[in-house]
Specification:
Blueprint lengths: L23 H13 L17 H10 L6
Length: 69
């Protein structure tokens, strides 16, 4: 039961052409585009809290698709 707690809304998972959720590289490119557009955001430093770890990049590289063209 929900005793006095506000119901939480789950954010919808964004999908991309492959059908799954957006990946690590897609999120990095989106952030770089926002920074270039003047959002005032900054990329996190390597090893800082919330930054992708080396393990995250290794895991993403296994599922990354090669570009065609």
């Amino acid at each position: 039961m929900n005793y006095g707690k506000k119901p939480t809304k789950k954010k919808p998972v964004k999908k991309f052409r492959g059908g799954g959720a957006t990946g690590l590289y897609a999120n990095i490119h989106k952030k770089r585009d926002r920074i270039a557009a003047g959002s005032g955001e900054k990329m996190r430093k390597v090893g800082s809290k919330g930054a992708p770890s080396a393990n995250a990049f290794k895991k993403a590289a296994k599922t990354a698709k090669k570009r065609t063209a």
